[in-house]
């Protein structure tokens, strides 16, 4: 008998689409929150993608 242990790691950084689904909001509202500095985000250098930290408030 073989026992398999799987460690699950909680995803902290979410893409725009993941944040929209997680918060249940529309993209224009998320963009407004980001532009007004009301939601923290990270934009990796040289990339178009914006990431949002699930745990920062």
Task: Describe this structure in a few short sentences.
The protein has helices at residues 16-23, 27-35, and strands spanning 13-14, 52-53. It has 57 residues and is mainly α.
Structure description:
The model has no long low-confidence stretch (mean pLDDT 88). It contains two helices and two strands, in the order βααβ. Strands 1-2 form a two-stranded antiparallel ribbon. The chain is mainly α and 57 residues long. It has one domain. It holds the Pfam family HTH_17. This is Helix-turn-helix domain-containing protein. Residues 13-54 form the Helix-turn-helix domain.
Layout: helices, strands, pairs:
Blueprint lengths: L12 E2 L1 H8 L3 H9 L16 E2 L4
Radius of gyration: 15 Å
Number of strands: 2
Strand proportion, as a percent range, falls in 5-15%
Helix fraction, binned, reads: 25-40%
Treating each run of at least 4 consecutive H or I residues as one helix, how many helices?
2
Total domain modules: 1
Overall average pLDDT? 88
Q: Walk across the major sheet and give the strand order.
A: 1-2
How many strands, what sense, and barrel or not for the largest sheet? 2 strands, antiparallel
Shape: elongated
First-residue to last-residue Cα separation: 45 Å
Structural class: mainly alpha
Spell out the helices and strands N to C.
EHHE
Question: Low-confidence parts lasting 5 or more residues at pLDDT below 50?
Answer: none
- The oligomeric state is single chain
